[in-house]
Every structure is written in structure tokens, then in C-alpha cells.
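#lab-general

N.A. 3:47 PM
ok so I finally got the sequence cleaned up, no stray characters, all 127 residues accounted for. can someone with queue access submit it? mine expired

B.Y. 3:52 PM
send it over

N.A. 3:53 PM
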Amino acid sequence: QVQLVESGGGLVQAGGSLRLSCAASGRTFSSFAMGWFRQVPGKEREFVSFIYWASGNTYDADFVKGRFIASRDNAANTVYLQMNSLKPEDTAVYYCAATRQAKLNYELRTATSYEYWGQGTQVTVSS
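B.Y. 4:20 PM
back already:
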């Protein structure tokens, strides 16, 4: 079983930065890809970014390109989401997710493609 624990959320002013972390644990952790999603009340979970575990290559949603950067530390079994130039509309609960199964790019942008989820961390951006 894989456990994912996010941290790093908080309150920040518009234009500020936060770095989210997602630490994975389990007997043997190996992942094909890990994703970041966000959700606000009353809306569906929204894709933010994903990273291929082996290569470190990433794919970002259009609305975060140039502002958010996903990265990973294989040795620490941890992925990060560096969020810069934050906007009030970025306010949401951010979740990390992992899949062990090979998936296509478009599938990795869909929440249902991931088997494991963290508990989420709140990010609030004030104007």
C-alpha cells in the first residue's frame, strides 16, 4: 500500500510563492507518474501538473505554465510543486496522487487515472 502525505500549504498574498511537498511511503514505492490536482468547493477536481517518476519530465495545465513547477526527489520519494506568482483564483485544496500503471498523457490529466491520493493541503491566496 502507498501512502501520500502533502505539506506546505498555507496563506499567502497574491504574487507570493509556496512550495508543496508530497512524501510517498510504503513497503516498496515505485510510481509511473505522480500528479497534482486542486479542488474548490462545489467543483470537480482540476488537473494542475504531473511528473513522470523515472524521467522527471512534467506536463502542466495551461493556466499554471510559467508559474508552477513540478519536480521530484527519487531518493526521498517526494514530489514538489513550486508555485510562484500566485493568484487569488489559485485558492484551493491541493492534492497529490500516484499511479503505478503506465498511462498516456491525456489519461494522466484525469483524476480517475490515479490509484493513490494524499489528504490534501489548503492553499489560500489573498488579494
